[in-house]
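We modelled the chain as a single entity of 312 amino acids. Its sequence is:
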Amino acid sequence: MRAAAFLTGLILGSALLAGPLAAQTDKNWDTCIATDGTPDSRLAACTAVIEAKSESGRTLAGAYCIRGHELTERRELDAALADLDEAIRLDPTYACSFNNRGRVYAFKRDYDRAIADYNEALKLNPNMSIAYNNRGDAYFYKRQLDQAIADFSMAIETGPNYAKAYGNRALAYQNAMRDYKRAAADYDAQIKLQPTVMAYLGRGNVHRDAEQLDLAISDYAAVIKMAPTDARGWRNRGMIRLFQGDNKGGFADYTKAVEYDSADVFSWNNRGQAKMRLGDKKGAIADFKKALELRPGLETALTSLKQLGVNP
């Protein structure tokens, strides 16, 4: 799904820790599977396990699987794919490897192959919440929305505390089906479990689309409080403020937005709108020209300049 943000998640966990007990005494193995370690430490430790050539079967497959995951997070997709192919060769009954390889194919936008791997992961482990979530994500990109929502629902059924699945289902309800009531309820659940910037942004967008503007402002304010240098909270709240006629508030928010993301064309354009409403003709012209510098031909900026008597 978009952004963000919102897609997949770590496959580290109980399913991944199912290697032979003998291997768990090894320091490199312990670091390789550690859920509280850093990505770099896991990558190095898993590489050490692989290069030691002392493990085999599920343990060695696990090392390849985790390293493949870490390489995927780095977007080193071909290297990740090679590791996950090897993990599957070593142990074709290991659901983790199929799920993680599915993610690689998804990042490569080969959604049919991704779905095939998620199918295999779920055959091997029918309660693998993350595989349902990831398959739902692939279906979402294929615009097979009923299947996407069904998979996100199964991810929640098999993992009731899986916050990202609530967020992904909310996004499907919101953007694909315009079912704002269900989308808001899912974002409520996600925020209760994991109050992230993306969850508040998502719920704010639902409230915005449902024309519940005060609730939208409240959620964008939460984003600003959590991440004051993230331009998204400022520009989203600024848009609502301008819509409500709060031109000073909109100007202030868009000033923060361009401070933290000077490449966002619409923040410049919308701050220009605020300045024009506030009577700052010179400032408005400068902002509209900046918007056109970033995106030549932007119709709203061209129209506004003509209204100000400027020939673009």
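As a brief sanity check on the tokenised model: The first helix runs from residue 3 to 6. The two ends are 37 Å apart (CA to CA).
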